[in-house]
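Usage

Read records sequentially. Each one opens with the input sequence:
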Amino acid sequence: MSSSQTIDIYTLSLNLGGSRFAAYYDIVGYTILLYDYFLTIGTEVDLIWPTPRSAGKGLFYATKYSALLDGALLLYLRLAPLGTTPSTCELLYKLSAEMISAGIIVAQFVLAFRTWAVWERNSIVGVSLLCAAPILSCPIGYITYLGLLSVTCKPLSL
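and closes with the structure output:
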């Protein structure tokens, strides 16, 4: 066996080991997320479901359930079969990144909404938070866009 083959096998084993560790990390994170979901679903049914529709309720659902979708998509990406095409990989990765960015933006609105409530719905605070929202959200979208321009998936050749 030549030294170049040994290096290739060594590099491959390092990459696969790192990928496996990242997959385990994602599985643990998603398991904790599901555990939290099952711990809180009873309280959610009792306190949130009977209330009338509102912006706060919509933001709550968007934040809570988008995390479940994001996690499931990331797990699929980590554990996808080797036969996944590069185009499918890129599509799922880009979709996942966009969903995570949208989740961050929705979480910012939840925090702004709560801040406004703590300030007893003060109109100056409300207008300030409403004006700050695009200033804080646009960089997230733009940075995600720039990062996704460089995403490429290549078939794994063994």
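Summary fields computed downstream for this record:
- Residues 1-5 have pLDDT under 50 and may be disordered.
- Helices lie at 3-47, 55-79, 86-118, 123-149.
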